[in-house]
User: Which sequence fits this backbone?
């Protein structure tokens, strides 16, 4: 009898934990001052250079802009294609300028 009561209490506790976790995970958390992901993905990071990069400059830009995406950062895009044109980088199959 004690084993049955203990088993029911344990199973009820596990059920409450899973219910509580699912409730917490479904809640929308807002961090004051945080930028929504959609806004980050749709904005342009850094402007393209006024004159084409040298290979050395392009290499440095790729190091500095490591967290930027080539699709949204004009600066990194220009640096990457400078490296491709110089033969020091190869774009993935299907990648277009």
Assistant:
């Amino acid at each position: 009898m004690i084993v049955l009561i203990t088993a029911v209490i344990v199973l009820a506790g596990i059920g409450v934990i899973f219910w509580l976790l699912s409730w917490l995970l479904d809640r929308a958390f807002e961090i004051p001052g945080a930028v929504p992901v959609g806004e980050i993905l749709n904005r342009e990071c850094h402007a393209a250079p006024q004159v084409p990069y040298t290979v050395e400059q392009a290499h440095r830009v790729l190091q500095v802009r490591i967290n930027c995406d080539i699709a949204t950062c004009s600066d990194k895009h220009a640096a990457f294609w400078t490296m491709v044109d110089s033969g020091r980088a190869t774009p993935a199959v299907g990648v277009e300028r």
